Amino acid sequence: MTDSRTAQHQRSLDDPDGFWLEQARSLDWITPPTRAGDWSFDEKDFHVRWFEDGVLNVSANCLDRHLAEHGDRVAIVWEPDDPKAEPKRFTYAQVHEEVCRFANVLKAQGVQKGDRVTVYMPMIPEAAFALLACARIGAIHSVVFGGFSADSLAGRMEDCGSAVVITADEGRRGGKTVPLKTTVDEAATIFAGVKTVLVVKCTGRDVPMTEGRDVWYHEAAAKVSTDCPPEPMKAEDPLFILYTSGSTGKPKGVVHTTGGYLLWAALTFRTTFDYKAPEIFWCTADIGWVTGHSYIVYGPLASGATSLMFEGVPTWPTSARMWEVVDRHDVSILYTAPTALRSLMKEGDDIVKATSRKSLRLLGTVGEPINPEAWRWYHDVVGDGRCPIVDTWWQTETGGHMITPFPGTVTKPGSATLPFHGVEPKLLDGEGKELHGEAEGNLIIARAWPGMMRGVWGDEKRFFDTYFRTFPGVYTTGDGARRDEDGYYWITGRVDDVINVSGHRMGTAEVESALVLHDDVAEAAVVGMPHDVKGQGIYAYVTLNSGIEASEDLRQALKKHVRHEIGPIATPDAIQFAPGLPKTRSGKIMRRILRKIAEGEIGALGDTSTLADPSVVDDLVKNRVG
Ligand code: WTA
Q1: What is the phi/psi pair of residue 53, to 5°?
Q2: What is its EC number (predicted)?
Q3: Is the CB–ligand 1 distance for residue 404 below 6 Å?
Q4: Inter-residue contact 308 to 79 (CB < 8 Å)
Q5: Are 115 and 106 in contact (CB under 8 A)?
Q6: Which residues of 553-588 are buried (b: 16+ CB within 10 A; e: fewer)?
Q7: Do 110 and 128 touch, CB atoms closer than 8 A?
Q8: Looking at ligand 1, which residue's alpha carbon is closest to its atom 14?
C-alpha cells in the first residue's frame, strides 16, 4: 500500500496535468476542463487557477448525480443533542428536495449569484441544506460558528458585505440553549447592512421578529416550489468564504472556489478514509469550521456517502455519549479532535469499554498535534487495537487533507506521516534555506494544489503578504514540522502568533484587541500556554490604567468581557496583571519571554539585556499565574 501510494504521489508530481485532469473526471462537469493547474507564486505574476475552463455546480455534484442510482441512500443522519429525542435520516432524494426548496427561498428573498450569505446556525440538518442551497444558486456562503459573539458576527458580515443571514431561533448544545436569533438582532444593531434574517425554527422559542427584515424559514418555504435547476458555475467562481484567525489583525476571509475545492474535499475524503458505501461516516466538527465544511458536507456528499451530523457535545449527558452515538448508528469511521479524546480519556476506560464500538473500522484526528498518549488511547481503547488511525494535518487555507496516513500506511503515534497526492512539502530554516533529510524547520508547500485557498476576501495584498512573502515562491503554512528518517512528518505546532485552543485557531492579536477595549486596560499581550485538555490555553498579561486596582473581580470581569467581544472560545485561561511588559528599546514586546513565563520555563528566558527595563521580568516571574 505504501509503495503504491508513493508511486502515485510521484506521478502526481511528475505529471500534474495528466494526474489532475484524470482525477477531475470523478466530478460531474457541465463543461469538462481541458486545463489543470495554472499558477505562479512569484509576486510579479502571482495567480492560482485550476480547471479554469470547466463548468459545474457543487450541489448537483453532491446531490443530483446520485439520484438515479442512490436516491434512497441515506445522505445525512442527524443525531440530536438530547439522546431521548429521535434521530432524523434524510435520503439523497430528500436532501435534494430540501435543498431545492431552500434555494428557492433564498431566490425569493432576492439572493443572486455572487451574493454573500452568512450562515449562523446550530448543528441541525438545515445548516447543511443552507450551504448546499447557496451552492445551488451560486451564492457565496460565509458560515460563522454559532459560538461567536454579535461583534464577531457583525464584523464578518460587514467585511464581506453580506446582507442576508440564515439563523435559527435558538440552538441546543449539551442540554443548554444558545440564543442565536438574539445575537443576530444585536449584530444587526452593529452592522446596519443586515437586510434579511431568515430564521429556521429549531427549539420553538418565541423570538421577536422585525417586520420587513426577519422571515420565518418555514413560512417562506411553504410558498416556493421544489424545482430549482443548479446554476452553472465556472470552476474558479467562489464557493465560500470562511473567516479564520491569523497572526495579525482581524480574522481574514479565506476564499475557496468551486472546482478545485470540491475535487480536493471529495478525493481526500475517499482516499484518506477509504470510504465504502453504505458505511456511516461521523465527523464530530461543527459546520462552522472548515472541517465541518469539507468532511460533514462537501467531501462525503460529493462521494455519495452517509454523513452523520451531531447536534450535541461529546460530554453530555455523560462522557459515554460519543461511544453511544457510535453504537446507536453503527458508525464505521470516526473523525474527531485530540482535545475531545484527551477530555474523554480522563474519565477512564470503563466508560468506553461499557459500549460495543464493534462497527468502527477507522479512526481519524484533526485540528492539532495529537500527543502519543492520546493516540495510543484512541487506538488501544476506543478502537480496541483493531482500527488504524489517520492523523490528518491540514488548514482552513488548504481546503482538505495535506499530510495524512491512508488506511494502509504504516503509522507512528503523533506523526501525520506522508503528503497527499500532489502535495510537495518542504522544510526551510529561518533564512529560507531548504533542509534535507532528517530535519526540523518551517513547513512550506512548494507548489499549488487544487484545494488551496484563492484569496483573502477583499484583500489581495493580504493574501500574498500572509502566505507568500516570508519565503518567496512557496506557500508558508505557519506550522513547524520535523521530518524523520523515513520521511515522515511530525507537526510541531504553529510558529507564528496563532494559538490552537481545543483545535480552534485563535489569533493572539484578536484577544489583545478585545482586552484593550475594556476601560480599565492600558495594554495587553497574549500568548499560548500548555493545557492538558485543550492543547493550548490562552494566557494574557494585562497592564491596567493608572489608578486601577488589580483584583479577582476585575480578572473575572475581563474574562467575561473577552467572551462578550469574541465568544466563549476566546476566554483567557489565565490573566496576569503586569505593571509593565518586557519591551525592547524600540518598544516592541518580546513575546518570547512572555511565552516562556506562561509555559513555566523560568530558567530558559534567554537574553533579557536588550530590554528597555529588564526589571519588569522579575515582577512577571514572581507573579506568574497557574
Ligand atoms: C493545526 C483545521 C497537527 C495546525 C483543519 C494548522 C494540526 C491548524 C493538525 C489549522 C494535525 C491541524 N496535527 N496540527 N493533524 N491538523 N493542525 O485552520 O497548527 O482550523 O496550522 O484547520 O491546526 O487549523 P484550522
Answers
A1: -90, 10
A2: 6.2.1.1
A3: no
A4: yes
A5: no
A6: ebbeebbebbbbbbbebbbbbbbbbbebbbbeeeee
A7: no
A8: 368
The neighbour count for residue 462, using CB atoms within 10 Å, is: 17
Residues whose CB falls within 8 Å of the CB of residue 391, separated by 6 or more in sequence, listed in order = 364, 365, 366, 370, 375, 404, 405, 411, 414, 415, 416, 417
According to the annotation, is 393 in a ligand binding site? yes
Give residue 93's pLDDT: 98
pLDDT tens readout for residues 385-416: 999 999 999 999 999 999 999 999 999 999 99
For the CA of 291, the closest atom of ligand 1 is 5
Biggest CA–CA distance in the chain, Å, is 74
Helix ranges (DSSP H) in 450-551: 460-467, 508-516
Query: Residue with the nearest Cα to atom 10 of ligand 1?
Result: 395
**How far apart are alpha carbons 274 and 579 in whole angstroms?**
56
Render 531-574 in DSSP notation, one character per residue.
ETTTEEEEEEEEEEPTTPPP-HHHHHHHHHHHHHHT-GGG--SE
Question: What one-character-per-residue DSSP string does 167-235 give?
Answer: EES-EEETTEEE-HHHHHHHHHHH-TT--EEEEE-SS-------TTTEEEHHHHHTTS-S--PPPPEET
Annotate 114-156 with DSSP letters as a single string: T-EEEE---SSHHHHHHHHHHHHHTPEEEE--TTS-HHHHHHH
Distances in whole angstroms, Cα of residue 612 to Cα of each of 491, 526, 597, 608, 615: 35, 20, 18, 9, 9
pLDDT computed for residue 605 by the predictor: 83
Q: Name the residue with the closest Cα to ligand 1, atom 12.
A: 367
What is the pLDDT at residue 319? 96
Q: What is the pLDDT of residue 603?
A: 83
Do 237 and 138 form a contact (C-beta atoms < 8 A)? yes
Q: Under DSSP, is residue 418 helix (H, G, I), strand (E, B) or coil?
A: coil
CB of 394 within 6 A of ligand 1: the answer is: yes
CA Rg, the chain, in Å?
A: 24
From the number of C-beta atoms within 10 Å of its C-beta (0-12, 13-18, 19+), residue 546 rates as exposed
What are the grid coordinates assigned to 469, written together? 512573502
Euclidean distance between CA atoms 141 and 238, whole angstroms: 9
Sign of CA dihedral 604, 609, 612, 616: positive
Please tell me the residue having the least CA distance from ligand 1 atom 6.
395
Q: Is 462 annotated as a binding residue?
A: no
- 38 grid coordinates: 495554472
The answer to the question of whether 259 is labelled as a binding residue is no
Instruction: State the pLDDT at residue 2.
Output: 60
Using most ligand atoms within 8 A of CB, pick from 148, 412, 479 the residue to mutate for ligand 1.
479
| Cα–Cα–Cα angle for 144, 147, 151, rounded to 5 degrees | 70
d(CA 426, ligand 1 centre) in Å: 17
Query: How many C-beta atoms lie closer than 10 Å to residue 408's C-beta?
Result: 13
* List of the chain residues with pLDDT < 50: 1
pLDDT for the residue 602: 84
How remote is the CA of residue 393 from the centroid of ligand 1, in Å? 6
Hey, whose CA ends up nearest to atom 5 of ligand 1? Answer: 395
Among candidates 64, 139, 150, which has minimal Cα distance to 108?
A: 139
Torsions phi, psi for 417 (to 5 deg): 65, -105
